[in-house]
Batch of 4 targets.
Target 1
Amino acid sequence: MSSTDAVPTEPIQLADPNEFDDYVADGVVLVDFHADWCGPCQMMEPAVEAVASDTDATVLKVDVDEHQGLASEYGVQGIPTLLVFAGGELADRIVGAQTEEALADAIAEHTA
């Protein structure tokens, strides 16, 4: 994988909700809406981390307890909810625990 723009190889924890739009503005971004107390979210953690290191997508983790406004804005009703943004636009929505392969496939659909 060689690219002029280095894509983070680890998931990014969203700290400031005002930065959300900046993160999803360019390229393909997988947004993981999760919570620390969510069992399926914890089970998915290795898959999310693998996708961050093995694909050209940026992975952004959003804690729904800390960022309820963002969760509401994007219609997150159950967690884990994963959104795929491509070029700043919401391109895909995946609800529930997923395999690493399913996440990688969702990202691959939007990378050209």
Target 2
Amino acid sequence: MLLTPGGTVPSGPPHTDKVTHALMFAVLAYCSRYARFSPIVTVAWLAVYGILTEVLQATIAVRRSGSIWDWCADLVGVAIGLAIAAAVGRRVHSGRTK
């Protein structure tokens, strides 16, 4: 979705794209933790992935532009995904000890 041509991306209210970025990266971070990647590895690979997608948007002919703010939204999403994964993990772990 991050590299689809600009003409095919639906538009919405201002900053909707930032929410979309955050949600996508929150899901990726949660899945990464579910796959038992450490939080550090999760942040590292998703930060690199986010930068890579923004650079590709700015350099390949998909009629889109790269944005540092989109990357910041990606990182906010990673933090949200990690927090949710930690909360779920604590809940699951506390349920097993009862």
Target 3
Amino acid sequence: MRKGTTARGVLGLAMAVALAASTAACSKDSPGPAAPGGGGSGAVGVDLPRADSDFWNAYAGYIAPKAAEVGVQITGPTNSQNDVQKLISNVDSLVTQGAKALVIAPQDTGAIGPKLDELTQKNIPVVSVDTRPDTGNVYMVVRADNRAYGTKACEFLGEKLGGKGKVIEFQGALSSINGRDRSEAFKQCMTEKFPGITVFEEPTEWEGSKAQAALETRLSTDPDLKGVYMQAGGVFLDPTLQVLKQRKLLFPPDDPRHIFIVSNDGIPQELDAIRKGEIDATVSQPADAYAQYGLYWAKQAMEGVVPKEGPTDHGSTVIKLPNGFEDQLPAPLITKDNVDDPALWGNKQ
């Protein structure tokens, strides 16, 4: 210490050094204004969207190990059971319990907006997994490109059917951005690339029983059905195979009577069905990565990091949304050619 330096001078120097270090760190990791929840500590509140889907049950199983891997504490998880009002109640409970950030998966992407704006006012950052809220501020959306799901399913079925025939589509809930994205992209692709294919659009609200009833009715009126697009294998796989088995229509892929089936999710049950020749393809939603990066971005939010647009170090791309950011994760098409790939999360269960 230099002779004559006062205590006030030492304190001022220390504060200046700390401020400089803080400014340098912010400019390195988070250019622009600070993100919500910049305290850097606290628990992440997690709400699970439902317990009646193999995909979401797999996601739930990843929460605890991924939280340990990312280095965050968890409050919850609660389960909103596909009910937006229950989700709102669960969110309030998680915040009351001390959650400083939230990871949720709202199935009704229109109705959650006001609650998101309320959380913004409370400085509680929200990460939305799998679904993109229509309105309301979010820190980050972690999802794959759902329009690509519909396009990949269309192209697969269109090529297998040689551009002609009849296909039934089990649409997810159209109150969800995922249901709309998959349905719109599938329809656009079929209209533009395969106009000779007739598509029967069947709304299901993501309910397996509705898909099952729709398939039974359609097979009665159109027994020459040649393709099925299931927008969520986690809820549609078992009912679909059950109907086909009961009607003795489950033929192997090399049989001319085979009904081609493409799905979305990538759950282990779908991969087994592909190996058996019961279905032909699925688009793999990364349940493990949804949990990992949902929690990762919640931690980033609590640390005050502002996301950057562009490629990430985990093979995805961050884009800017009108109401936040989106981390778009890769979602590969799985067929018999790559079903045994050990990198697929469905092969790690």
Target 4
Amino acid sequence: MSDEPTPGEMVRRLEDRLADVRDDIQQLGRRLDEKVDQRIYDLRHEALSGRVSTLETLREKDNEKLVATRRWLIGAVVVPLIGIFLPVIILLARGTG
């Protein structure tokens, strides 16, 4: 008969288990509160995809502007300078030879 728990010990064990179950339920509730709803996730994902595509478009436009600027620089500055200095260099080379 000494192996059997007393009614008080049974109540204490039951209260401990009940407290454990309550803690588990509270933890589950907190985890569910932190979980993002699928619709919200989808909306955020769509918004992020839109931002990324916008940034990619802007990057392509900036790249095109950079190429256009380089072409302008070559056409407006480098070619005329070569046109001016090349004949001078040729004349100086002929004059000394």
